[in-house]
Write a structure and sequence with these properties.
4-stranded parallel sheet; Rossmann fold; single chain; 2 domains
């Protein structure tokens, strides 16, 4: 049993300097909660402490400065303040390894590093996507350490870049192993959440995975339709318009494009692993979505000898209006074009990558262009004479596609 500490602070967001944790910590502080961010990334911690957002998030810069000015936000690279917080929100998930199997190493490492600062009576809220059963596993681990700490799983479901708004608009899934813990986390998130959906922990774990896997499969369906149409030399924009126009049963059909980022593929593969690899739809979706960059290169090869051309990629973030390149398929496209073309130039208006070059240089020097991320800056792009543009997103009307 750990000696009791005075809980002088409300919540500590562990691993809280990233895209998931920082917006949540700012929302807690804005709601009047005494909030601590603990993260081992010293450089990012120092930046946040200076009042500078380390990434793009709508409305976050103002909230960060206000939270620091009000004294409601503390940012630290050491875990010492953790023992003084009633709630601990752990922003550590279960990623997949190089074999697409879930890895629990990061979760174990996080619990080990925090163990000396945990106190009886605290509530540990798991926030990131986790493999089904991990909440129970963490609960048993804490009990084996002699700690009386309640465990809850309350997954985040907001869109990156719009977190601060969606925290206040979307229902919050809450789950716990004790009724009193469930009420406590509802009180915590009730400072800003309009509605709750109560589940058991494993139901909540599967709900998050199935939500992302469902979206991933939807994207795969339309990407497969796109490649079928292109293989037969047909205009997929016209086909898609015919599917959706004034036809409510197809209104939710997305357009084609790169389905990437740190969640969709990972969560689909976790669900596949949980089903003993019987989730055939998930595996098929992976093959379609991950294979789309290669299909675009193949389309270009039909039109031109890429080996004699300079190719250019517009957009390296994993989604539009984001500065986050994690798991972006633009980089897979770059690798493929490095093998196929004479030279590859890449650009992005947001991503801080020293290998990127200015937009004007890509447009000026590239013979063949690929619109990989549908940033607003690329809408209405005029393709210079003599150049080809492949635009799976249909952002540019006169693209080769």
């Amino acid at each position: 049993m750990k000696p009791e500490s005075v809980l002088t602070r409300d919540v500590c967001v562990i691993g809280g300097a990233g895209h998931v944790g920082l917006p949540l910590a700012l929302t807690f502080a804005e709601a009047g909660l005494r909030t601590v961010i603990y993260d081992i990334n010293r450089e990012v911690v120092a930046k946040i402490r200076r009042g500078v957002m380390p990434f793009a998030e709508e409305g976050a810069q103002e909230l960060l400065r206000r939270a620091l000015d009000r004294g409601l936000l503390e940012v630290t690279e050491t875990p010492d303040l953790m023992s003084e917080c009633r709630f601990l929100v752990l922003i550590i998930g279960t990623p997949v390894d190089e074999h697409l199997n879930p890895s629990f190493t990061a979760m174990h490492r996080a619990i080990d590093s925090c163990a000396d600062h945990l106190r009886d009576g605290q509530i540990l809220v798991l926030r990131s996507t986790i493999f089904p059963g991990i909440s129970e596993h963490v609960k048993r681990d804490l009990e084996a350490r002699g700690l009386d700490i309640s465990v809850a799983f309350c997954p985040e479901r907001v869109a990156q870049g719009k977190s601060l708004r969606e925290f206040r608009e979307l229902p919050q899934i809450v789950s716990a192993f004790r009724p009193e813990t469930l009420e406590a986390v509802k009180e915590l998130f009730g400072r800003f959440t309009p509605e709750f959906i109560e589940m058991t922990p494993m139901e909540a774990e599967l709900c998050k995975l199935m939500t992302n896997a469902s979206r991933y499969i939807q994207f795969a369906i339309v990407n497969q339709f796109y490649t079928i149409a292109k293989d037969h030399g047909l205009n997929f924009d016209r086909i898609l318009h015919g599917c959706r126009h004034n036809y409510p049963r197809m209104a939710g059909m997305p357009g084609p494009g790169f389905a990437a980022g740190p969640c969709l593929l990972k969560d689909t593969m976790q669900l596949a692993a949980f089903s003993q690899n019987s989730f055939l739809l998930g595996h098929s979706a992976m093959l379609v979505n991950e294979g789309l960059p290669a299909r675009l290169v193949e389309l270009a090869r039909r039109d031109v000898d890429l080996s004699q051309k300079t190719t250019g990629i517009l957009g390296m973030a994993f989604k539009a209006e984001s500065d986050d390149p994690r798991d972006s398929l633009s980089y897979k496209l770059r690798n493929l074009l490095t093998l196929e073309s004479k030279r590859v130039l890449c650009t992005d208006p947001y991503v801080p990558d020293s290998t990127l070059v200015p937009f004007e240089r890509v447009i000026g020097e590239a013979d063949v262009l690929f619109l990989a991320t549908p940033h607003r800056a690329y809408r209405g792009l005029r393709v210079p004479a003599g150049k080809l543009l492949y635009d799976v997103w249909s952002l540019v009307p006169d693209a080769a596609r």
